[in-house]
Amino acid sequence: MKKLVVQKYGGSSLASAERIKAVAGRVAATREAGSDVVVVASAMGDTTDELIALARQVAKRPPERELDLLLHTGEVVSCALLAMALGDLGHEAVALTGFQAGIKTERRFGRARILAVNPHRILQELSAGRIPIVAGFQGFTDELDITTLGRGGSDTTAVALAASLGADRCEIYTDVEGVYTADPRVVPEARKLKDISYEEMLELAFQGARVMHTRAVEIGAIYNIPILVASSFTDAPGTLIHGEVDMERRNKVRGIAHDTDVAKVTVLGVPDRPGIAAAIFEPLAEAGISVDVIVQNASVEGLTDLSFTVSRNDLEKAFSLVRPVAREIGARGCVSATNLAKVSIVGAGMQNAPGFAARMFRTLASHNINIEMITTSEIRITCIISEDRVQEAVRALHRAFQLEKPD
Ligand code: ADP
Ligand code: ASP
Ligand code: MG
Fold first, then answer.
1. pLDDT at site 247
2. Which of 76, 93, 298, 388 counts the highest number of beta carbons within 10 A?
3. 72: CA distance to ligand 2 center in Å?
């Protein structure tokens, strides 16, 4: 049977007419090599940011539904242009919006999850010999409203399509040559990984390595889709994200992620009694706000401080939900801060091996970087620190764990 690949091209790979023609050339070459190909395109360059800025110029709080309708046009533009460029190279291509491609989502504007993909139209186009070019980052609801999947969501469109089409693999083409031990723009000596497990990639993505959208990795893991991350500018071999990485291979940190999209809310002087945490966090959950790190101090004379972090975009909403609850439960007050960032070390080899946390804390201490909060998973340690120290922290940890050295 013919091989089927899904190829996704990110915004910087499609930033100009020249780049769109270059990408068309790569898609055509894949097709000429004998594979069937479905393409997912992101919006050109900074289009999404520009559309958000434009919306904010006309309205203080742009309504979510209209904002999604606006933002989804970015990917529609690049899809249509890419299909035209392919036509010029002698390949019949058909541009499809998320709606036309059958991507059904929940009704949650700005961060909708994909509920189902009806691949009927894509399969029809493939069997007619055309190359489907699907607009990433978007879908539609039961009510036929347009939704977007959250920033970076085109990766998720690509992996979801690969799963529903039973593709042999999903290829994510971007402006770096693969997944590195840290963001190569922050750590010049960061090393490209040959491969990485879904589990480790998921943690890195969730902690801010924006080279892959978290939910894309989740879907890849569930459906066991191999995902190649590679450059659309060069032919260098990329990084394969898959399930068969030998976990015992190294007792090492695999990568470091950092994220400046951190805001903290602290509820001060909370009475220490059952039900308080539930009262604070339930309204946040109902509003669809994900809470990341939570720290509750030891109680002194029956009072405790409770801090948690959310994405900066969610801060205003989170704060407005928590303030009345704080008043109701008799807390002393609420404060928020946005000058924070998080830095994480990730590696399956950290499981059951002592010493990683100590080395991380010692490294930060030796740079005089204060740790405000700490969280861990089995394969990750995260510290919340001051935003203006985060790049220094990433570089110091990269050195301390000797990540520049080959495996
Ligand atoms: P695209 O527009 O192609 O989706 P993104 O900007 O979303 O590209 O993601 C690619 C960027 O991710 C890179 O330019 C790089 O700065 C950043 N990045 C962060 N962490 C890593 C990492 N560990 N490996 C590679 N790139 C990373
Ligand atoms: N264009 C969207 C964004 O900028 C989706 C994506 O690029 O994946 O977030
Ligand atoms: Mg991206």
1. 55
2. 93
3. 9
Nearest-angstrom CA–CA distance, 196 and 257: 14
Would you say 335 and 297 are in contact if contact means Cβ atoms under 8 Å apart? no
Q: Which residues of 71-105 are buried (b: 16+ CB within 10 A; e: fewer)?
A: bbbbbbbbbbbbbebbeeeebebbbbbbbbbbbbb
What is the pLDDT averaged over residues 189-213?
95
Task: Please count the other Cβ atoms lying within 10 Å of the Cβ belonging to residue 115.
Answer: 13
pLDDT band for position 196 (50/70/90)? very high
Q: For residue 363, what are the CA distances in angstroms to 76, 203, 347, 383?
A: 46, 21, 17, 12
261 contacts 206 by C-beta, under 8 angstroms: no
Q: Nearest ligand to the C-alpha of residue 158?
A: 2
Which atom of ligand 1 lies at the shortest distance from residue 181's CA? 23
* Beta carbons of 40 and 9 less than 8 angstroms apart: yes
Domains of the chain, residue spans: 4-245, 256-400
- For residues 34 and 199, the answer to whether their CB atoms sit within 8 Å is no
In this structure, which residue's CA is closest to atom 8 in ligand 2? 152
DSSP 316-340: HHHHHHHHHHHHHTT-SEEEEEEEE
Mean pLDDT of the chain: 95
Strands 239-242 and 227-231: antiparallel
Residue nearest to atom 9 of ligand 2 (CA): 151
Q: Is 90 exceeded by the pLDDT of residue 121?
A: yes
Region of residue 57 (phi > 0: left; psi between -120 and 50: alpha; otherwise: beta): alpha
Q: Is 14 in the pocket of ligand 1 (CB under 6 A)?
A: no
Say whether pTM exceeds 0.85.
yes
Q: Say yes or no: CB of residue 153 within 6 Å of ligand 2.
A: yes
Architecture of domain 256-400: 2-Layer Sandwich (3.30)
What confidence tens digit (pLDDT) does each residue in 19-29 have?
999 999 999 99
CATH topology of domain 4-245: Carbamate kinase (3.40.1160)
